Amino acid sequence: MNWETSMTREFPEAIPQDRFVARSYEALLRQGFRMENTIAFACVCRDEITWPLVEDIERTWGEAFLFSGLGGLPILGKTGFLAAQQHAPIDESGLERYVYYALPHIAIGPEGEFGVYFRPGRQQASHACGALIAFQHELESRSLHLVPDPDDIEQSVLKRHLLGKIRYGDVPDLLSLTRIAHGIILEEIERMIHLTVDPSRSNYGLFTGIQIHAPEGRHFVWPGAAYVVMGGKQLHLSDVKW
Q: Are 228 and 234 in contact (CB under 8 A)?
């Protein structure tokens, strides 16, 4: 089985990464969001292969504030979220606009095997997402370390969130873990928005999904949540033609 067959089977709605960013921009443009009046927040894994998505976001929206953490989990807390908002343009009415992009990621190898990625300069296959695979290996070995490790803070927080979504004794495969991570990231982004965003002076859009790294440097996105909040009212962007 080749990688295209595997991706189509597991992520039939996946689209090229640049198209995901372009179509999300077009959807928000109809709601009054533009590069000149909006700041973008990018929440992706720290892995360097996620960077092309950030570059697409910055080409479209201008410089982005990075929320990145291992696995794509936002762990910058209220201080980070509030600091990011203070970098936003303010229009003549005093309104600020934000757009959040939040995505975990997964690689797919030439033969269609998920988690496999061949990095430039390395002869052997490596993996993505490494943080999720490390958690999976702990589950498989029945030696899960749950005490917060001050030398491994981000992984400790990621594991705690993941474990809260898994039935005791289960060992999900990487695809399942990635989908679980997507749900957790969405919950955390929405929770922190609720804690930090003042809807009386801020409008925002939110786009989630799963970033997929294919052979030959090709990147795709399976689109997840897509909505805009204006004046405190949420509008689902069901008309986005991905």
A: yes
**What's the distance, CA 32 to chain centroid?**
24
Could you read off the pLDDT of 102-156 as tens digits, one per residue?
999 999 998 889 988 888 777 677 788 999 999 999 898 887 777 887 888 888 9
What are 195-231's pLDDT values in tens digits?
Answer: 999 999 999 999 999 999 999 889 999 999 999 999 9
Q: What is the pTM of this model?
A: 0.92
Give, in order, the Cα–Cα distances in Å from 180 to each of 105, 158, 161, 210: 12, 11, 10, 11
- Taking the C-alpha atoms of residue 28 and residue 235, their distance in angstroms, rounded to an integer, is 11
Number of domains in the chain: 1
Cα 177 from Cα 158, distance rounded (Å): 11
For the cut 90, the answer to whether the pLDDT of residue 72 exceeds it is yes
- 1 contact partners, CB below 8 Å, separation of at least 6: 111, 112
Residue-level length of the chain: 242
Mean pLDDT across the chain: 92
Domain around 60: 3-123+182-236
CATH number at residue 16: 3.40.47
pLDDT at 143: 79
Whether 151 is covered by a domain: the verdict is no
Helix axes 174-196, 130-141, angle to 10 degrees: 120
Where b means 16+ CB within 10 Å and e means fewer, 218-242 reads ebbbbbbbbbbbbeeeeeebeebeb
